[in-house]
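re: ur question from earlier - yeah i can do the single chain one, its not a big deal. heres the input i used so u can compare w yours
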Amino acid sequence: MRRLYHSDHSPYARRVLIVLAEKGLPYESRKHRYAREFADLPQINPCLLLPVYVDDHAHLWGSNLIIEYILAAHPDTPATSPDPPLAATMICPHHRWHDGKVLATIETMTDSIMNLRQMKMSGIEREQNSYLRRQRERIDLCLDWLEKNATGDGFAPGFFSIMDVNLICALGNIDVHRSFEWRGRAILEAIVARYAERPSVKSTVHA
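and the output i got, formated as tokens:
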């Protein structure tokens, strides 16, 4: 039986939840409000981070590694899957280095988004801290670069790519927490709007 340990409103966990929904795979959810409140976390992940995925053949952490495994282990998708189809791989083999760079940029941006949120929860505002101001600057630079390297149909037109999934989860987290304004980037806005009503995306907005 698949089991997913994850935390509340996590953009990392939401990536995995979207892919599980796209694949139509049942799983057991072990949800915790915060990773730090999960007493047994050190026993399943030395990094002390969620999500963690476990099935009969794998025990993995790191959301994109989990997704890569799910794509490889379950290449088929339900016949009722919406168009465009979920991409079969993390990146397009013909654009390996560029797609890898896009994923790395979104991951860096997501980490910065979460750093700002965690510090704010601890009572530290970015205006008070040069490190956090740098995080905020990094987010805008990443967004501007992504805007120049995407199309309104996503990062891999013709497919619902894992790059699209990563972006939607990062920007969705900003929106849920009303962290700051990211809009004003027409192409990124178009990607979010394109997939807003897709069942896997819509059902995980508040996951």
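The two ends are 21 Å apart (CA to CA). not sure if urs matches, ping me
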